[in-house]
TrEMBL record:
Transmembrane segments: none
Pfam families in the cross-refs: SBP_bac_1 (PF01547)
PANTHER family according to UniProt: ARABINOSE-BINDING PROTEIN-RELATED, BLR3389 PROTEIN
Organism per entry: Streptomyces hoynatensis
Protein name per the record: Extracellular solute-binding protein
């Protein structure tokens, strides 16, 4: 992992504070090198410098939520849009960028409209896309699969057969960072979509907690229990995704499959390049027999966004907006593509061949672009008051502390 910048006293004295510096927080991972490079370029020509603060992923969400509204809040910060920032919008903590976007056709037209809109709250823009599109993808080790006589699973029956075959070979079928419940969430997101269709979670997201009682939720939870009971995830409760532990575990050949966002390719390309070039393969999540969901539906994050603290004003606000516009530039999109990310700019298809793995770039872009439904990650789609108990229940389901029936009852009662 990249070394984090000093996290306290970095340049500005809280939001809007300090004469010459904007403090910008970013989630630290294998894509942060892009933001580092463009911050340096921005600072060469700006009277107000950007100080990029890299925060380890394990601490990012909690640190951001604790800081916002306080004197320690960043001027600009990385987020997931939608529900992840709706509380901040309600508390008037963010700059409304709607007029900025609407009055600048070059900025507005730079991005795929659906991606730009996905970060909006109540029809207003509070964020500008700053990374690639991020569908959740089933990655697998093609060398392990070939040696076991397996091919990429197209159906749930294929998937279960692969799990059983790998277990018989004494190979952990699935790498999973059980210390981070959002990684476990991905399995339920896809299973619920494949079994019940995206409409079930749409009801939940819109406030209908009774939708947790849909039969598809129980069936999805039962499938998770079956996988846990047969040890498909191995020693998942000792591994974390946010410290790169699971990715390293997977890259070292200790597990055959890994369900993760498309950023996993960029992480592997940066941290485990030999594995990325020689062994890493990918496929869509398997279709479920008699499921109501379209097998080409996708779950994940449309992208990440930069948002501006509402306490930033005057010349610093002007500089902050100019910094956000960097993400709309051709050069920035090219750098993302070269790093293995899939840009969300309107010219993205022209850049995909510049990726270190054009085949993956086209796959991820087409997966998101052609999906009939793109369900936002539950913990980002739901407000914090609902997302937190949902993640807690998911963690307890995987840990065997809740039965599938208790999981359903818990979420119906907690919303």
């Amino acid at each position: 992992m990249l070394a984090a910048s000093t996290l306290a006293g970095c340049g500005s004295s809280g939001p809007g504070g300090g004469k010459d510096t904007l403090e910008v927080w970013v989630y630290q991972d294998g894509s942060t090198t892009i933001q580092e490079d463009f911050v340096e370029q921005f600072n060469e020509s700006s009277d107000i410098d950007v100080d990029l603060v890299q925060i380890p992923g394990a601490n990012y969400q909690d640190r951001m939520r604790t800081a916002m509204g306080s004197s320690n809040a960043p001027d600009i910060f990385f987020n997931w849009g939608g529900g992840s920032i709706s509380d901040f919008v309600d508390d008037d903590l963010l700059v409304d960028l709607t007029d900025t976007v609407q009055s600048d056709p070059e900025l507005k037209d730079a991005f795929i409209p659906s991606i730009l809109d996905a970060g909006a709250v109540d029809g207003h823009y509070y964020g500008i896309p700053m990374r690639g599109v991020q569908p959740v993808i089933l990655f697998y080790n093609k060398t392990i699969f070939e040696e076991a006589g397996l091919s990429a699973p197209e159906t749930w029956d294929d998937f279960e057969n692969a799990v059983d075959t790998l277990l018989a070979e004494d190979i952990t079928p699935i790498a999973l960072g059980g210390l981070d419940s959002w990684t476990e969430q991905m399995w339920l997101e896809y299973l619920l979509d494949r079994i019940g269709g995206p409409e079930v979670f749409d009801r939940i997201r819109n406030g209908d907690s009774s939708a947790w009682g849909d039969p598809a939720v129980l069936r999805a939870a039962q499938e998770i229990k079956d996988l846990v009971d047969k040890d498909a995830f191995g020693n998942f409760q000792s591994l974390s995704q946010t410290d790169d532990g699971v990715s390293t575990f997977f890259a070292q050949g200790n597990a055959a499959m890994h369900l993760m966002g498309s950023w996993e390719f960029a992480n592997q390309n940066t941290n485990q390049p030999d594995f990325a070039q020689n062994d890493l393969a990918w496929t869509t999540f398997p279709a479920f027999p008699d499921g109501a969901g379209d097998p080409t539906d996708v779950v994940g994050n449309p992208t990440n966004y930069w948002s501006i603290n509402s306490q930033v004003t005057g010349d610093k606000l002007d500089a902050a907006i100019e910094f956000l516009k960097v993400s709309a530039s051709q050069e920035y999109a090219e750098a993302l593509a070269a790093n293995g990310d899939v840009p969300v700019t309107s010219n993205a298809t022209d850049l995909l061949d510049q990726s270190p793995a054009p085949e993956f770039a086209h796959f991820a872009y087409d997966l998101a672009d052609q999906a009939p439904s793109f369900t936002l990650s539950w913990d980002q789609a739901l407000v914090t008051a609902r997302a937190t108990p949902t993640l807690d229940a998911i963690s307890k389901l995987f840990a065997g502390q809740l039965s599938p029936e208790e999981f359903v009852d818990t979420l119906q009662n907690e919303g």
